Model the fold of this input.
Amino acid sequence: MNNKLLVIGTMAYDAIETPFGKTGKILGGCATYIGLAASQFETQCGLVSVIGDDFEQQHLDLLEEKGLDLSGVVSIPGEKTFFWSGKYHNDLNTRTTLDTQLNVLTKFEPIVPDNYKDASIVLLGNLDPNLQLEVLSQMDVKPDLVVLDTMNFWIESYREKLDEVISKVDVISINDEEARQITQTHSLVEAAQKLHAMGPNYVIIKKGEHGALLFHDQKIFCAPALPLEEVFDPTGAGDSFIGGFVGHLSQCGKISFEEMKTATIIGSAMASFTVQKFGTKSLEELTFSELRQRVYTFKSLTEFEIELT
Amino acid sequence: MNNKLLVIGTMAYDAIETPFGKTGKILGGCATYIGLAASQFETQCGLVSVIGDDFEQQHLDLLEEKGLDLSGVVSIPGEKTFFWSGKYHNDLNTRTTLDTQLNVLTKFEPIVPDNYKDASIVLLGNLDPNLQLEVLSQMDVKPDLVVLDTMNFWIESYREKLDEVISKVDVISINDEEARQITQTHSLVEAAQKLHAMGPNYVIIKKGEHGALLFHDQKIFCAPALPLEEVFDPTGAGDSFIGGFVGHLSQCGKISFEEMKTATIIGSAMASFTVQKFGTKSLEELTFSELRQRVYTFKSLTEFEIELT
Done:
């Protein structure tokens, strides 16, 4: 395994409203969150994405300073960057999309840079399944691990293509409601079994404030979520999770259930930072020492002694 | 600390309907579930409850064979045992009460048997707060640990008395919606802080299929729930949880956050058995070796290795 990590996803501007405040246009997009999370690790991470000519140099600089390779990011002159605006309700579990301007996304033709065509890990961020398939088809060497993140929009409107992607990946990461939606099953254990049968050897079901479940070969791992006094802005939590997950696997260079357990905790820790501030702010400021500290907090959350005689 | 565990609660007959089937009148009541769960441990457990003359001898025999002390169970001649009937909906998270016949409950005057007036642990099962207070007032010696279980009905209709009970207990065990209801707070971390301020040093928030949280003095422990393919009947899950919790503490004879973490896992394991069959059936059949096995399953659910350099 090499330590190349290829990420396809959106780079965007978001405008977010939560019960705690409201932002103007801020940096967003799944590839952005994933890249920032993965940049905590010793990995060579390349983003494949598309931006318009309104994308600010300071944001490109920020990502490059974090060591991310942007040679796969195409800028389309005369077009604007993908924009999303949403409002979270009081419980922060539901949100309303206020505005979606696809802009450059409608013209996105992903091109994998030559030196990433042998990347050991490919992360297909939340995006049109056709584009996810296109990226896979451009790989010269079969990756050791392909990870898929998706969401309800693609399940509802692109089901056939999505199923094709699912059949080609090793790991699928979705939330509980989406797992139930895809499999038409209430029990998450059964849903995971059905998802396994569709292709992926590893199934991650994210449960927001209730943590995440990792399923593999009859085995289950439960990652807690950090109980927080306040969730400030949930945007990008799932992307941060999967970015931390692949970042760790890419650095350690081993694919196993044991390593994925640790990766799931690291992803959960990463998401716990993201939700504490608006947008990418937490991830931009995060140091590895803070991350390590929080991972140990996660460990102490679930550790207990047992001696039953 | 002695190993006497005093439990006040209902003994009842239930009729239950779930998506998986329907029962006739079966054994129920919170004291029954708590007693059966606690009977797995080396503890002297006495129940304070009330029954009518329709309560079957075979059910009294069952509880006595499990080693439970029924000297605090009063039988009222000419009256019928408390009866509850309910129907669970497809997701098993919501239920409709079809029938409640209070019967003997309206005449319940709890009497703590003399030899339990020095019990080290008192568990106030889900019941009228006035009766919970009455039991506490009958104790000769201040217990080392008083544990309270309650539910939405008492929060809505008996709030003042309930607050008085809460101010006198060491541990409160309630579910997430009830914690939010009592404290008028969405965040469970904040809700726990508010509950602490009302009296209890330890706060347990049960989250059903998402496990349970134990809060104490700025510290938090997350117990997972066992991911099950099927939840057959949720009746008595919370009672089994708290019964296992106090059973373990009574046997080990130590009150600390560390022991309560283990007790929370044991309670969760106990609840995981209860929901797999109708009513008390699982707890009636459960062996300690099966319980131990499941507790180790819980351990493996959350264990992971971490070495971040």
About this structure: Chain A has eleven helices and 14 strands. The first helix of chain A runs from residue 30 to 38. The longest strand of chain A covers residues 44-52.
